[in-house]
Amino acid sequence: MGQSEYLLEMLDITKEFPGVKALKGVTLQIRPHEIHALVGENGAGKSTISKCLMGIYTPTSGKIIFDGEERTNYTIKEAMAFGVSMIHQELSPVRDRSIMSNMFLGREPMTKYGTIDWKKMVEEAKKWLKQVELEVDPRTRMADLSVAQMQMVEIARAISTNAKLIIMDEPTSALTEREVEQLFKIMRKLRSEGTSMVYISHKLDEIYKITDRISVFRDGEYIGTEDSDKLPLDRMIQMMVGREVKDMFPKVQCKIGEPFLEVEDLSHSKFFKNVSFDVRRGEIFGIAGLVGAGRTEVIETIFGILGKSGGVVKLAGKEVNIRNSRDAIKSGMALLTEERRHNGIFPILDIRFNTTVANLQGYINKFGLIDKKKIKEDTDEYIRMIGVKTPSATQLIQYLSGGNQQKVLVARWLLTQPEIIFLDEPTRGIDVGAKSEIHKLIGKLASQGKCVVMISSELPEIMGMSDRIMVMREGEVTGILDNTTNVSQEMLMEYASGVRNDYQ
Amino acid sequence: MANSKQIKQTISKYGIVFALIGMIIIISIIRPQFLSYGNILNVMTQSSIYGIMALGVTLIIIAKGIDLSLGSMVAFSGLVLASLSQVGGAAGKMYPNLPELPLVLAILATLAVGAFMGSISGFFVAKTHIPAFIATLGMTTIVRGAALIYSGGKPITNLKPSLLALGGNIGIIPVPVIIYAVMILLTWVLLNYTRFGSDAFAIGGNIHAAEVSGVNIAKAQILVFAFGGVMCAVAATVFAGRVQSVHPGAAVGYELTAIAATTIGGTSQSGGIGTVWGAVVGALVLGVLRNGMTLMGIDAYWQQIAEGAIIIGAVVIDMRKHAGKK
Ligand SMILES: Nc1ncnc2c1ncn2[C@@H]1O[C@H](COP(=O)(O)OP(=O)(O)OP(=O)(O)O)[C@@H](O)[C@H]1O
Ligand SMILES: [Mg+2]
């Protein structure tokens, strides 16, 4: 067998699901020692081809050659054995088990008596966690970690298998810059040791920073492969979308009105203290900060999911007592949560249900019955408006690509017609084209006099969209800035890391 | 091509219906009298009691619960109904001084008792977060004990003709079948067209997402279990009408048949998936099976083994439909 140029060749791969042709004869060729970007819009088939390689799906047709051998009809275990490992886009940790149990699930180190060697497991886990610079005890429960920390555990798990090829399906969507840098450091080290990586991401700047070559998919089709340094950004976007995308941040200046939401000295016994800010009608209020700064917790407290230990929340000048999400929704709030799978989607229910569940009251007719026809119409309208890619509105949401699931959740909250909407990482995992669409929707809400509070770990997004930016660090506000041209990424990072603090 | 795929999908979706039809064909070839009008009504009447219970437990299982105390609840609510509907002046009457109540009132009281018992389980699940399995396991013996205390351990007999009429026929149609049909319709509307049903799906589908979406989880859980109790009370009414007396040890193990019917009909124990028609077809599968085996003269002990095998087989097929590779 002649030595091939490639570590992996996936040739003419087709994958059909009932009613959906997810891959239509695509090609993916990965060289040894390379970091290979795989880009494309939501639903292009990136996760599907990854799962085909990993043995989670069996391709309908096509050829897979790995390490010089053709591989057909194999299981996940066999894929791991011949040297493939994967960081999954959708985290699904066993939340009540420890970090190490999650890392070594299904491949626990054994003693010579055939029982699990816990001591070895702790050591091994510690070693790999150290690699990703996650300073936590491997016996910590998964549920006690932040999303970013869970992501780092997932990365540690993937590299701990000593694979020849690691597929990374949107590993950075839950990470902030600092952790992304950490990941890149690890990736460079792995590459120098001979590992290849497939890197999937919607953050296009990252693609240029870390990858050697880029393959583009569109709608289940293979568009092409280029060297990263020879493919300019606008050309890559054009290959992905099939048209030009201008205006990533279509921020229109809206008339800013009266303060609508006022938060005074809000505190939580564990996560943050004395947080005060107000949001005005027509305003987009950005919240920046590092992972663990308490941003999510602040808005979950306002929304009544977490209990406050002190402080006051006012809406339109009146103090409100919001004890749970029902109170919050009734008083005109909406919350797009950060963890899509944990408390966002209802995976086994259809798109219609997922779109309308928070607005059910709006569909109950005078007989107390649900108006299914109106649900159907509204769902159809919204999935068209937001551009959810699906064969039908009765598809179960678990069968949508990650980005399309996120769009359904955006639709869910728009449908409640909120006065104030909290968006926790609203464009996580969403492709360039759709991102600009969602930004447009956010802008439109503001122009209708609604309030928008947006948490984002992507500084360009925060700076591109917000009227004002609040920065938090370790549970405290370090600054609230007017988003003028004076504000720079460096400046926000200084507030986020505590170098600057206006409240000292 | 696409056509054959569609056929495949239809078969997998309605597999249990095809299984039912297949059973009917086989049985009626071996025992043609199976298809007689009288026998068909007989099967439906016999299915109606656990069929009604299956409707209740379908909702509970959709909301990711389970209720093991259904049988005990049938016994207890049946005793309440019987004690309120004894013939005036009969010997050994439980409430000798009770003036004769209209049957409607007695039934309403029974339904209220059913709702109350169910909501106790619901309360524990919702407020203490103990697993439904444990809460209702406890309720199974508590309610059975309460039934024994209430009746003094003796059956209650001498029931009013109006109650017995509920076990009879209107024209040629058995009243239990009519009651069953009404309950099917009611449950179907509740499950598909009300907030109550939607909340059950939301809780079973993802309880964390339900919470963020504004579902009142505790209330919904209590209501779902209360509904299960109400369906037990309805089943008890049919039971009293047909058996013409209620014994405190009645309906032991009925919950298992009801849960089996629900499960055969495709309601998933992991919550969020289930249909009313599935529960009905599941109940009919068990009814046809029992009747057919009896007609064929199969030994009662062997019947139990066959029934168990069918339940396991149905679930295995169903799981493959939901969680196959590819
Ligand atoms: N199990 C499934 N059943 C049915 N359709 C599916 C299934 N998995 C994926 N699809 C469909 O296949 C297409 C490709 O999905 P895939 O998840 O690969 O997209 P992606 O490129 O990873 O998108 P994203 O950037 O949003 O993660 C989508 O249209 C999706 O709806
Ligand atoms: Mg994907």
Q: Tell me the major beta sheet of chain A.
A: 6 strands, mixed
Cα(first) to Cα(last) distance of chain B is 18 Å
Number of domains of chain A: 2
Largest inter-chain interface? A-B, 32 and 25 residues
Element-by-element helix/strand order of chain B: HHHHHHHEEHHHHHHH
Bound molecules: adenosine-5'-triphosphate, magnesium ion
Shape of chain A: globular
Helical content of chain A (DSSP H or I, runs of 4+): 25-40%
Tell the overall outline of chain B: globular
What is the overall number of helices of chain A?
A: 17
Number of strands of chain B: 2
Would you identify the CATH H-level superfamily of the largest domain in chain A? P-loop containing nucleotide triphosphate hydrolases
Low-confidence stretches of chain B: none
Distance between the termini of chain A: 69 Å
Q: Strands of the largest sheet of chain B, in order across it?
A: 1-2
CA radius of gyration of chain B is 20 Å
Structure described in brief:
The complex is a heterodimer of chains A (about 500) and B (about 325). With about 500 residues, chain A is of the alpha/beta class.
Explain what the structure shows.
The complex is a heterodimer of chains A (504) and B (326). In chain A, helix 15 links the parallel strand 17 and strand 18. Chain A folds into two domains: 239 residues, 3-Layer(aba) Sandwich (Rossmann fold); 130 residues, Rossmann fold (3-Layer(aba) Sandwich). In chain A, helix 4 packs across helix 5. Chain A is 33% helix and 24% strand. A six-stranded mixed beta sheet of chain A has the order 6-7-8-3-9-10, with helices on both faces. A six-stranded mixed beta sheet of chain A has the order 16-17-18-13-19-20, sandwiched between helices. The longest helix of chain A has 16 residues. With 504 residues, chain A is α/β, with parallel strands linked by helices. Chain B is mostly helical and 326 residues long. Chain B has a domain of 217 residues. Chain B contains 14 helices and two strands, in the order H-H-H-H-H-H-H-E-E-H-H-H-H-H-H-H. In chain B, helix 3 runs parallel beside helix 8. The radius of gyration of chain B is 20 Å and the shape is globular. The two termini of chain B are 18 Å apart. In chain B, 49% of the residues are buried. The mean pLDDT of chain B is 91. Chains A and B meet through helix 10 of A and helix 8, helix 9 and helix 10 of B. Bound molecules: adenosine-5'-triphosphate (ATP) and magnesium ion. The site of magnesium ion has 6 residues of chain A, from helix 1.
